[in-house]
Amino acid sequence: MRTTEVASFAEGKPASRRSYIGWLVGLCSAGVGAVLAVPLIRFSLYPLRANTTEVKWSDVGPASDFASVTSPVQRAVTVEQIDGWHKTVSEKIVYVTKKPHGQPEVLSAVCPHLGCSVQWNGSKQEFLCPCHGAVFSPDGARVSGPTPRGMDSLESEIQNGRLMVRYRYFRQLIPTKEIVG
Ligand code: FES
């Protein structure tokens, strides 16, 4: 009986050491594999994780068209946005006005209240939102109504004689401008 126990113990020891070494080698291999896979996974998923939307410049028209505007001019611009692997092209309405020092300013037509399309009323010389009656002055400042702020100005510049704009979307219902896309 005593002999059998010793033999069994003696036989079990090498087998247990082998399985422990095998387990250790497997664990190390898995660790190395995981470390090597991280950069690959991050590279593959980058476009999905990126929370920035790339917005191309949109052509509003020849800068000379807006050199002598006396009241806001409406234009439709083609907007190209790239979000990860997803590219969207759409048409948006903007208004070109003039800053006090004469430079053109481009305003989004999206009402900062709930997103309706603001329209220019030439006879009253004011912008009016048809949904809930918000009124804006010719430079886009808030005059009255439920809107929490004035019309949103868009980044713009003259490039090779053309007025270009970078179209963005802004958070509604808050008093400050906050880009959401
Ligand atoms: S959406 Fe313009 S006033 Fe409400």
What is the element layout, followed by pairings?
Elements: H1 2-49, E1 54-55, E2 58-62, E3 73-83, E4 86-98, E5 104-108, E6 119-121, E7 126-128, E8 135-136, E9 142-144, E10 153-159, E11 162-166
Antiparallel strand pairs: 1-3, 2-11, 3-4, 4-5, 5-10, 6-7, 7-8, 8-9, 10-11
Bound molecules: FE2/S2 (inorganic) cluster.
Biggest beta sheet summary: 7 strands, antiparallel
Q: Give the name of the CATH superfamily of the largest domain.
A: Rieske [2Fe-2S] iron-sulphur domain
Any idea what the CATH architecture of the largest domain is? Answer: 3-layer Sandwich
Bound ligands, named by name, code or SMILES: FE2/S2 (inorganic) cluster
Can you offer a commentary on this structure?
This protein is α+β, with helices and mostly antiparallel strands and 181 residues long. It has 2 domains: 1-49; 54-166, Rieske Iron-sulfur Protein (3-layer Sandwich). The protein is built from 1 helix and 11 strands, in the order αβββββββββββ. It has one helix at residues 2-49, and strands at 54-55, 58-62, 73-83, 86-98, 104-108, 119-121, 126-128, 135-136, 142-144, 153-159, 162-166. The strands form 2 sheets. The protein has a 7-stranded antiparallel sheet with strand order 1-3-4-5-10-11-2, with no helix packed on it. The longest helix has 48 residues, at 2-49. The model is unreliable at 3-10, 38-43 and 46-50 (pLDDT under 50). Bound molecules: FE2/S2 (inorganic) cluster (FES). FE2/S2 (inorganic) cluster (FES) binds next to loops.
